[in-house]
Design brief:
Layout (H helix, E strand, L loop, with lengths): L2 E5 L2 E3 L7 E2 L1 E5 L2 E6 L1 H8 L5 E4 L4 E4 L1 E6 L1 H7 L3 E2 L6 H12 L8 E6 L23 E5 L4 E4 L1 H6 L13 E4 L5 E6 L3 H5 L7 H17 L2 E6 L6 H10 L6 E7 L6 H10 L7 E9 L28 H13 L4 E5 L2 H14 L7 E5 L16 E5 L14 H6 L1 H4 L5 H6 L4 E3 L10 H10 L19 H7 L2 H6 L17 E4 L16 E6 L2 E5 L1
Parallel strand pairs: 1-6, 2-7, 8-15, 9-10, 10-11, 15-16, 16-17, 17-18, 18-19, 19-20, 20-21
Antiparallel strand pairs: 1-4, 2-3, 4-5, 7-22, 11-12, 12-14, 13-14, 22-23, 23-24
Helix pairs in contact: 2-6, 9-10, 14-15
Length: 532
C-alpha cells in the first residue's frame, strides 16, 4: 500500500471548515489526514511511507483542466507551430523550416494557424505550396474547426470540388468550382484520412509525453472533449503501463451524422472506468466558431453568416440528449454563438436532470442577457476558456469582434457575471487551441489581457475573476462540473490524493507574475508524477 506525507508546507485546502494546514498524508491514493505536522505524523506513521519536506511548498488541490483535447492534441501538435505568425510570409518561413525535416513527398503539417493571416486575401492552400516544396501539406487553424490543404493534399484525398455534408461542414470553393484548400469542420477529416497513421505504440508514446508535460505545469486531471468509443482502450493501455499521469473524464462525441443505431451503441458502451479515468457523458457540437461564420447566432454576423446550426435538425439534437439522459448520461455541448447556447439550454431543460452529474455548455463566447440567469437555477454548468481572449483586441479590430459586431462582442466571455449569478463556472484551456498551462489560463481569467503586458487594456475588464475564483475554476468548480464534489477539488480526508505545489500561493501571487510561478511538485493518486 503506497503512502506519502508532506510535512511543513503551507496548504490551502479549500475546505471551508479548515482552510489552512501544514501537512497532509495520502494512503493508497486517498487523503487520510490533513492538519499540523504532529497530527499528520500520528495519523500516517507506517514503515515505508514516503515523507516529503514541504518547506517552501505552497500546496493546493490538484488542478483540473475542465476542457481540453489531450489525446487529439498530442497527435495534432506535431509539425510547424504557426502560433503568432501574423502574415503569409511568416507562415511560409516556418513551413519551409519544417519541410527541411521531411523527405521527398512526405506530408508537412502545421498547427495554430491564425485567421488574421488572411485579412483581406483569400485563404488558399496554394499560398504555401512552394514553401513546402510541393509536398502535400495540411495546416490546421488554432481552433481546429478550419484547415488549409495544399493542392497535392487535396489530390491525395480525392477532393476536386464541393461536396454536400449532413452538417455545417464545407469544402470552400471558388465561383468556378475549384477548391481553395479551405476545409471547415468535418471536411478536414477527408484529408486526414489520406495521411499516414502512426502505429499504436507511437500514438500512445505521443500522448504519454503530452501528459508528462501537463504534470510539469501542475495539472492532475482533465475533462477530455475528444473522446470516442475507442478512447477507453487507450486509457486502459496507458494506465496499464503507468503512463496515464493525468486523470481523464472521457465523454463520447456524438456527431449529427450518427444513426440511431450508432447512438444506441454509444449508450450501450455506457460508463466505463479505470482507477484514473471514466466515461459516461455525451459530447455534442451544436455549432462551429465565430471567425469562419459557423457559430450559430440569434442574428446573422456582419457578413451575413451564422444562421445555421451544426446539427441540421435541432429537434433531433434535443431528442438525442433526452435519450442519453434517460440512460443516465449527462450531456456536454460545444455552443459558441448565442443561438446555440439557447438551443442547448432548452434541450437540457426538456431532458431533465441526470443523477450522474449536471449538463454542461462549453465556450459560451457570446451570451444574451435573458440566457445568463438560466444556468444556476437550471443546474447547467458553464465551462469557459478565457485564454482565448489572446486573439482579441480591446479596440475590437480582430476577426472575432469584427464578425460579431460591437454589441455582441461586448457580451463576450461573461465569465464574472456567470460565476456571480450562482452558476458553476469551470475553467480550462481548450488545448491545443490555447496552451494548457493553468497558470497562464488563471492569469487570463484575472486580467482579461496578456499576462506581463501591464500597460495594455483588457477585453471586457468588468468580467475579471478574483484570484480565488480563478483557482476555484480549476479545483472546486471543476469538481462540481462532473459531480466529484465528494472526492475532488479540496484537500480533505477521504478525497483523492491529487495535489499541486507551487513556490508560493497562487492566490497571493500577482496575476502578471503567475505565469512564472514555479511548479515544484505534482501528485496524482498519491504518486509524485513531477518534482522540480
Amino acid at each position: 500500500m503506497r503512502s506519502l506525507s508532506i510535512i511543513g508546507a503551507r496548504i490551502r485546502t479549500l475546505d471551508p471548515d479548515r482552510p489552512w494546514a501544514n501537512a497532509v498524508a495520502i494512503r493508497d491514493g486517498v487523503i487520510v489526514a490533513v492538519g499540523d505536522d504532529d497530527e499528520v505524523r500520528t495519523a500516517s506513521g507506517r514503515p515505508g511511507a514516503e515523507l516529503i519536506d514541504g518547506a517552501g511548498l505552497a500546496v493546493v488541490p490538484g488542478l483540473t483542466d475542465s476542457h481540453m483535447h489531450p489525446f487529439l492534441g498530442a497527435l495534432e501538435t506535431r509539425g510547424a507551430d504557426l502560433a503568432g505568425a501574423a502574415t503569409v510570409d511568416e507562415v511560409r518561413e516556418r513551413l519551409a523550416a519544417e519541410r527541411r525535416h521531411c523527405g521527398e513527398g512526405e506530408w508537412v503539417t502545421g498547427f495554430s494557424l491564425e485567421y488574421r493571416v488572411f485579412d483581406g486575401i483569400e485563404a488558399s492552400g496554394e499560398l504555401f505550396e512552394e514553401a513546402v516544396g510541393g509536398n502535400p501539406a495540411l495546416l490546421t487553424f488554432f481552433d481546429f474547426h478550419t484547415a488549409l490543404a495544399t493542392p497535392p493534399a487535396l489530390a491525395a484525398a480525392g477532393i476536386t470540388g464541393a461536396r454536400s455534408f449532413d452538417d455545417a461542414s464545407e469544402i470552400v470553393c471558388r465561383p468556378d468550382g475549384r477548391p481553395t484548400g479551405e476545409l471547415r469542420e468535418e471536411a478536414i477529416g477527408l484529408v486526414v484520412e489520406a495521411m499516414p497513421v502512426p502505429s499504436d505504440e507511437q500514438r500512445l508514446a505521443y500522448i504519454a509525453d503530452a501528459l508528462a508535460a501537463m504534470n510539469r505545469v501542475g495539472l492532475t486531471a482533465s475533462h477530455m472533449m475528444d473522446g470516442t468509443r475507442a478512447t477507453p482502450d487507450d486509457c486502459r493501455a496507458l494506465e496499464g503501463s503507468g503512463r496515464l499521469t493525468v486523470r481523464q473524464v472521457v465523454p463520447f462525441t456524438v456527431q449529427p451524422t450518427m444513426s440511431d443505431e450508432e447512438i444506441g451503441a454509444a449508450i450501450a458502451a455506457g460508463a466505463q472506468s479505470g482507477r484514473l479515468w471514466r466515461s459516461g457523458w455525451a459530447k455534442f457540437f451544436i455549432d462551429g466558431v465565430v471567425e469562419s461564420g459557423t457559430a450559430w447566432l440569434e442574428e446573422p454576423d456582419t457578413e451575413g453568416r451564422g444562421t445555421e446550426p451544426n446539427w441540421p435538425d435541432p429537434e433531433r439534437y434535443a431528442a438525442v440528449i433526452a435519450r442519453f439522459a434517460e440512460a443516465g448520461m449527462p450531456s456536454i455541448t460545444h455552443a459558441i454563438g448565442d443561438r446555440s447556447v439557447r438551443c442547448a439550454l432548452d434541450a437540457y431543460r426538456r431532458a431533465g436532470p441526470v443523477a450522474r452529474g449536471p449538463h454542461r455548455v462549453e465556450h459560451i463566447e457570446t451570451l444574451q442577457d435573458d440566457q445568463l440567469p438560466r444556468f444556476a437555477p437550471e443546474r447547467v454548468v458553464a465551462s469557459q476558456q478565457v485564454s482565448h481572449l489572446q486573439w482579441m483586441t480591446p479596440d475590437m479590430s480582430d476577426p472575432w469582434s469584427r464578425s460579431l459586431g460591437p454589441e455582441r462582442a461586448g457580451r463576450g466571455f461573461r465569465t464574472a457575471e456567470l460565476r456571480r449569478s450562482g452558476a458553476v463556472l469551470a475553467l480550462g484551456s481548450d488545448w491545443p487551441v490555447a496552451g494548457f498551462d493553468p497558470r497562464e489560463c488563471m492569469a487570463w481569467a484575472r486580467l482579461r489581457r496578456r499576462p506581463g503586458n501591464r500597460d495594455a487594456g483588457g477585453y471586457g475588464e468588468q468580467q475579471r475573476l478574483s484570484a480565488l475564483e480563478a483557482l476555484e475554476g480549476y479545483t472546486t468548480q471543476a469538481a462540481l462540473a462532473v459531480n466529484d464534489t465528494a472526492v475532488a477539488g479540496r484537500i480533505m480526508p477521504g478525497y483523492r490524493g491529487d495535489l499541486t505545489a507551487f513556490a508560493a500561493d497562487p492566490v497571493d501571487c500577482d496575476a502578471d507574475d503567475l505565469v512564472d510561478l514555479p511548479v515544484l511538485l505534482t501528485v496524482v493518486d498519491g504518486r509524485p508524477v513531477f518534482r522540480a
